[in-house]
Amino acid sequence: MAGVALAGCGGEADAPSSKATGLAKGGVEKPVLKLGFIKLTDMAPLAIAREKGFFAEEGLNVTLEPQANWKVLLDGVIGGQLDGAHMLAGQPIAATLGLGTRAEMIAPLSLDLNGNAITLSNRVWSMIEPNLPKGADGKPAHPIPASVLQPVVGKFRQEGRPFKMGMVFPVSTHNYELRYWLAAGGLNPGYYLPGDVGGTTGADVQLSVTPPPQMPATLEAGTIEGYSVGEPWNQAAVKKKIGVPVVTDDQIWHDNPEKVFGLRRDFAAKYPGTTAALLRAIIKAQAWLDADRGRNRAEAVRILARPNYVGADEDVIAASMTGKFTFGPGDTRDAKGFNVFFDRFAGYPFYSDAIWTMTQMRRWGQIPADHDDGWYTAQAKAVYRPDLYLSAAKALVERKVIPASALPQTDGFKPVDTGFIDHVPYDGRKPNAYIQSLRIGLKNGQKVTASGVTGG
Amino acid sequence: MATAFADIEPVVQAEAPVERPAKVASRGGATASRLQQALARQGKALLAPMLGIAVFIGLWAALAPMVQTSLGALPGPFEVAAQGGALFDEWQASNEAAAQFYAEQDERIRAGTQVLAFDYAGAPTFVDQVATSLETVALGFVLATVFAVPIGLAAGLSPLFNAAINPLVQIMKPVSPLAWLPIVTMVVSATVTSADPVLAKSFVISAIVVMLCSLWPTLINTAIGAASIDKDLLNVGRVLRLGAFQKLTRLVLPSALPFIFTGMRLSLGVGWMVLIAAEMLAQNPGLGKFVWDEFQNGSSQSLARIMFAVVVIGLIGFLLDRVMMSLQTLVSRNRTV
Questions:
Q1: I need a labelling partner for A236 at 20 to 30 A (CA). Which of A430, B5, B90, B326 fits?
Q2: Could you give the dihedral angle defined by the CA atoms of residues B283, B288, B290 and B294, in that order, rounded to the nearest 10 degrees?
Q3: Do A275 and A263 have their domain in common?
């Protein structure tokens, strides 16, 4: 432990920093910063930027502090105890829209693509496993649709028990992915009443919030029958033999955006140099994580396994960070794109990604009323800030730290995407048409009341 | 008036008689019997507790491996001790890393490549968390005492004031720290607006929660102490025509001091318990956060590290109590009017 810490903090960090602090001089208005994170492997860019000295190179003295849950983390950033944080993509959007605590937030950088999975308890797995179609190797054919859960949910209902699953936050990507998967399989995950955070109106499957690191314990306690969470908490279920991951978010929506780096808009406006330096350091860390097809991943796993970062056992973290993903015991498959930090323009904050999140907020009632397509674009442009990303990334291109080809030529909208588990095409320029095209979910003019969906 | 506070009173009375038999015994009797008694005392004071601890550790070592959790078997005393060593090593490694950081920073500043000197921003180690918790409980405890003693004295001296605050005290007293926490968090976050406050917000929040919960034992005991002053003393004071201030400092405070210290001792115990819970929930730096972070880590060493923290929390609570107890006996002995 001691040796690793020294190598990380001292030796390697300082050789480049003595050159680079000169570059950042004058630009950084607030060099001493505290950033929050949740114990998940996708906080890796922050840990790497700290331990590999990328923050120091930009003249920043950064403390990283783990937070108990997403709510505490968000309140920390809004209240100013934290200068910025590893955030769910939906958090800065929801805060700006005023769903939950209202605050003007921005997301100038996307931290990663993919990285989540859905795990079911052993009990439910044993109920669905015999009926799954098998491939040539005798293992279940992927992706596993949620429709296989229908008989189980029906059996639970007959016994008078609700079928419960966990996710990490009402506006989390995990919530929307789990809901997408369930709805694509014909199960209604429930609607949100205006102002409520329960989201169980009309639900076939009741979803509830549990902080990521407590997921395995909550599953083990029998409070929930499955969950949607980031790594390493699916692999932890495999290791502890308490559950089986059935589907990854990459299978639900290929290359979906996951975490973002979020901060207050007034912070970025007051400290533009600091914000740019932070972004440069994080982009460098993202490039380091994906360099040479994952050459550095083993070292990243060792850093993340330290108790002050993710802290789970190395083999558990490595199980998803090194290009493989273990579903059941003995069912380890290639999952090259399970965590993408830099490749495929992973860092660029696409407007179309923000708009997808908002379509799901509308689909499930968190956005209680209809808005025209222009409103969605305007909100996305207020929160997602590719301009900040590009100016930081271009500075790195000029310094030849990253290649120019790593920056996308785009107006912020991805082309029409059909990479979903049910292949429904998504066009970020037409959010209302997309909401109409989804089978389960609120349609134009519909509202949620305590007795169910009305109107439309 | 004393009926409302009656549940606190026995604490003082229970403490006092313990000293008396020992004093009587040491005064008289032959050397042999003194030795015998000393041995017997030693046996009670040292051997019995050691035996108790040994049996506990033995049972722990034997039974822990039989409890299987999803993080492996429950760690026994040796695993816990090993993690204690590991935590100490981490602290040393962090100190070395900090020293190296400062050395290199000084070099850079001398060379002119860095303008500002930074504090080392390493992750807090276990020792740092212990220190943070102790500082927090100290601030909360001092705040509680500063508020509780004057209010308690006023309540003890004026039956009217006492009747006025009694219902409030009775209602506030049983409120859990965790119920206070969201309110205190929001209020402190709203009132402390400076970008770089002298005391960290999280530190202030924890300290105020500790204060709110540890206020009551001191307040109630002080009130009892001030109210139960000997009426003869007050009459003497009247004869000597002591002013209000002199009456307070010469008569009331000295006779109430043992009660005040009993209350403070209870307060510190409550404060320490409250602090750990508040740190766990609010994720404010300290031992509570250490425990929660380790629980979240869920690695194969996590349980042993949490158990080590539990032992340390217990030891610190015990030491704090001993310090307050010796202060209390000191004050009770030198009680003169």
A1: B90
A2: -90
A3: yes
Name residue, tokens 């930027």.
A49
Let me know: does A261 contact A389? Beta carbons within 8 Å. no
Task: Give the integer Cα–Cα distance in Å for A204 and A200.
Answer: 8
Q: Are residues A271 and A397 in the same domain?
A: yes
Residue among A61, A306, A313 minimizing CB distance to B300: A313
Residue ending a domain, among A222, A256, A290, is: A256
Q: Which chain A residue has the Cα nearest residue B292?
A: A68
Residues facing residue A166 across a β-bridge: A208, A227
CA dihedral A262, A337, A391, A18 (to 10 degrees): 90
Closest CA–CA distance from residue B179 to any residue of chain A (Å): 16
Is the pTM of the predicted complex or chain greater than 0.90? no
CB–CB contact B90 A32 (8 Å): no
Last residue of a domain, one of A256, A284, A313: A256
Q: Does B110 touch chain A (CB under 8 A)?
A: no
Whether residues A323 and A391 fall in one domain: yes
Mention every residue, 6+ apart, whose C-beta is less than 8 A from residue A232: A40, A41, A310, A312, A316, A317, A319, A320
Note whether A1 contacts B195, CB cutoff 8 Å.
no
pLDDT digits (tens), chain A, 456 positions: 333 333 333 333 333 443 344 444 448 899 999 999 999 999 999 999 999 999 999 999 999 999 988 988 998 899 888 999 999 999 999 999 998 888 999 999 999 999 999 999 999 999 999 989 998 888 999 999 999 999 999 999 999 899 999 999 999 999 999 999 999 999 999 999 987 778 888 899 999 998 888 898 899 988 999 999 998 999 999 988 899 999 999 999 999 999 999 999 999 999 999 999 999 999 999 999 999 888 999 999 999 999 999 998 999 899 888 888 999 888 999 988 888 999 999 999 999 999 999 999 999 999 999 999 999 999 999 999 999 999 999 999 999 999 999 999 999 999 999 999 999 999 999 999 999 999 999 998 899 988 888 886
Give how far Cα A347 sits from Cα of A45, A64, B204, B329, Å: 11, 20, 37, 65
Domain that residue A147 falls in? 116-256
Strand, coil or helix: B236: helix
In a domain, A40, yes or no: yes
How many angstroms separate the CA of residue A63 from the nearest CA in chain B?
5
Boundaries of every domain in chain B:
126-333
Of B166, B142, B143, the C-alpha closest to B155 is B166
Distance from the B310 Cα atom to the nearest Cα atom in chain A, whole angstroms: 17
Backbone angles phi, psi at A167, to 5 degrees: -140, 175
Is A300 part of a structural domain of the chain?
yes
| Shortest distance, CA A447 to any CA of chain B (angstroms) | 32
Evaluate whether residue A183 is within a structural domain: yes
CATH number of B126-333: 1.10.3720.10
Whether residue A207 is found in the same domain as residue A173: yes
**Residue A18: its chain B contacts at CB < 8 A?**
108, 111, 113
For residue B113, give the nearest of A18, A80, A220 by CB distance.
A18
We report the CATH number of the domain holding residue A196 as 3.40.190.10
Which of A55, A58, A81 to mutate: most B Cβ within 10 Å?
A: A81
Q: Using a CB–CB cutoff of 8 Å, tell me whether B123 touches chain A.
A: yes
A chain contacts of residue B294, beta-carbon cutoff 8 Å: 307, 311
Find out whether B150 and B143 touch, Cβ atoms under 8 Å.
no
